[in-house]
Amino acid sequence: MQPKLQRRLVMSSTSKLNKSIHAGSEESPLLDLLNGFIVELRLAGLPVSLTESLDAMEAVSHIPIEDREAFKYALGATLVKNYSHWKSFEIVFEVYFSIRGSEYEIQDNDLTNSTDSEIDEAEYQQGEAPAGGGAMSGLSPEELQEMLFRALLNGDQAMLRLLARQSVIRYAGMEPGRPVGGTYYLYRTLRNLDLDSMLERLMKESREQALSELTQLEERLELDEYKNRIEELKKQIESEIRRSLVADRGVEAMARTLRKPLPEDVDFMHASREEMANLRRSLYPLTRKLAARLARRRKYGRRGPLDFRKTIRHSLSYGGVPAEPKFKYPRPSKPEIMVVADISGSVAAFARFTLHLLYAISSQFSKVRSFVFIDGLDEVTRFLEGVEDIGEAVHRVNTEADVVWVDGHSDYGHAFGVFWEKYGKDIGPKTTVLILGDARNNYHASQSWILKEAQQKARKLYWLNPEPRAYWDTGDSILGEYATHCDGAYEVRNLRQLEAFIEKLV
Fold first, then answer.
1. CA gap 314, 322 in Å, rounded
2. What does pLDDT average to over the chain?
3. CA–CA separation, 289 vs 294, rounded Å?
4. What is the per-residue pLDDT for 163?
5. Cys-Cys link to 364, which of 55, 95, 291, 474 (CB 3.0-4.6 A)?
6. Residue 37: is its pLDDT beyond 50?
7. Mean pLDDT lowest for which of 14-23, 134-143, 311-320, 434-443?
């Protein structure tokens, strides 16, 4: 869907929401703010229904916007249905509400001109300001570091928020109108704070304050606690930078800049290591669903042979009259699956996901056989079975699998030939074959007859392609030739498309 059309549809739905809540009454600034917030959530990919929007507005009508945490969690409880969406929700919330005041308007938040007394009044009302808090602008870098060290040591959240803001003012070097991303400012701030040395100092102080020598467990717990406090400080600094950028560039512009795909929409071909780790956690529920979908479903009717023994035994309740015949029903068979995956350079990023998928699948099926190929093919089932560390399994596949025949460039025809010669006899009516790859064959012979033979022997044969459908059969792609002999060829570039494929299975 085109972005302009998508935004128009989203605005239309929120307009209906607006009318349903305040029909015949004057619109409030809060309502306008929430409407924009919900529009951005939908544009970011979060599924927010009209009913959920109404629930959110009802929830926050009882909470003052100044109570940021309560306000955020009230919105989150009504609008977020998937934990993987929470990070995206928090980013949008920060953009829309981080610098909103009690009048629901953007406040002047120019960090370079703020005084510490203003900060104290805004952030630490009702006696929350730290004792002895005066202007921090006159502090030397050493004094600021010392205050930061003490706040981390004592877990003083109020002081850490204040110091996070002061650190951004002092070290980020933010200039109004400068087209620089928040990551650059975050790097400059953290570089000057030198938090790695701070962690070592915190642990040294903890050992000195202990009445006796810390045990290995106590030291580990202390280390984890200080790491968590430092991570929280980093989040506070990032939040302060984001506030300043929103004040400078505007809400909608920052929302567009910070908008990232949800985990289920991340492209396998371009996923970062962090995104791949998130994808891995989402794979296991999908593989369980895949196993359930591929399990053979039998209709239990009166089609099996008569079970004479069970019939006679049951007839005793009728005085020996076989009034209710019993039949033998076939046992439901567990699914068997063979996965053949391309791990060549053209799908290098997708190959990482493929290996994680193979690992996840291996724990969900009664019988799984996994194969990887480039121009040669090798079975890697042995590397994935009974292994607890996925990293170790992936490393063994990448280093020990015999997948290069000549030059290490994709040759689907030769790989399929090896597969059929060595393992074709193992395909049976209970077997589902999954082929993962882009079908870019470097203009070699296709050997498509092998897929035809495999489809006739197998229960089902599916092809999953990580490339957009528009790229199929362009250049050296010959997917169309292979797809003729498949029960289905699907574009699977992300988790959402993988789930859609699973849902289509009968």
1. 8
2. 77
3. 9
4. 87
5. 291
6. yes
7. 14-23
Secondary structure of residue 267 in the 3-state scheme: coil
Instruction: Compute the average pLDDT of residues 192-219.
Output: 85
Contact of 383 with 396, CB cutoff 8 Å: yes
Return the closest-CA partner of residue 276 out of 204, 214, 354: 354
HEC profile of 391-448: HHHHHHHHHHCCCCCCCCCCCHHHHHHHHHHHHHHHCCCCEEEEEECCCECCCCCCCC
pLDDT digits (tens, 9 = 90+) for 357-390: 877 777 667 678 889 999 899 998 888 777 776 7
Q: By percentage, how much of the chain surpasses pLDDT 70? A: 77
Sequence letter at residue 228: N
Q: Dihedral sign for Cα 151, 157, 161, 162, please.
A: negative
Nearest to residue 413, comparing CAs of 471, 476, 350? 476
Q: What number of residues does the chain have? A: 506
- pTM attached to this predicted model: 0.60
Backbone angles phi, psi at 459, to 5 degrees: -65, -50
Q: Are 402 and 378 in contact (CB under 8 A)?
A: yes
Q: Is the pLDDT of residue 212 over 70?
A: yes
* Alpha carbon distance 150, 145 (integer Å): 9
Q: What confidence tier does 480 reach under pLDDT thresholds 50, 70, 90?
A: very high
Alpha-helix runs per DSSP H in 24-156: 29-43, 50-60, 68-79, 86-97, 116-123, 141-154
Measured distance CA(192)–CA(169) in Å, rounded: 12
CA atoms within 13 A on the CB side of 393: 22
Report the C-alpha gap between 202 and 223 in whole angstroms.
9
Dihedral of CA atoms 194, 171, 182, 117 in degrees, nearest 10, equals 120
CA distance readout (Å), 59 to 34, 53, 66, 83: 12, 10, 15, 20
pLDDT over threshold 60, residue 492: yes
Residues sharing a CB contact under 8 Å with residue 300, sequence separation 6 or more, in sequence order: 329
Measured between alpha carbons, how far is 137 from 96 in angstroms, rounded to an integer?
29
- Quote the CA–CA distance of 487 and 381 in Å, as a whole number: 24
Residue 339 neighbours by CB under 8 Å, 6+ apart: 357, 358, 361, 368, 369, 370, 371, 433, 434, 435, 436
Given a contact cutoff of 8 angstroms between Cβ atoms, the answer to whether 71 and 89 are in contact is no
Report percent pLDDT > 90 for the chain: 15
DSSP state of 343: -
Question: Residue 312 is encoded by which pair of tokens?
Answer: 């006679």
**Structural domains in the chain plus CATH codes:** 3-104 (no CATH), 124-249 (no CATH), 270-296+332-504 (3.40.50.410), 300-330 (no CATH)
Please indicate whether residue 244 or residue 332 has the higher confidence score (pLDDT): 244
**pLDDT score of 14 more than 60:** no
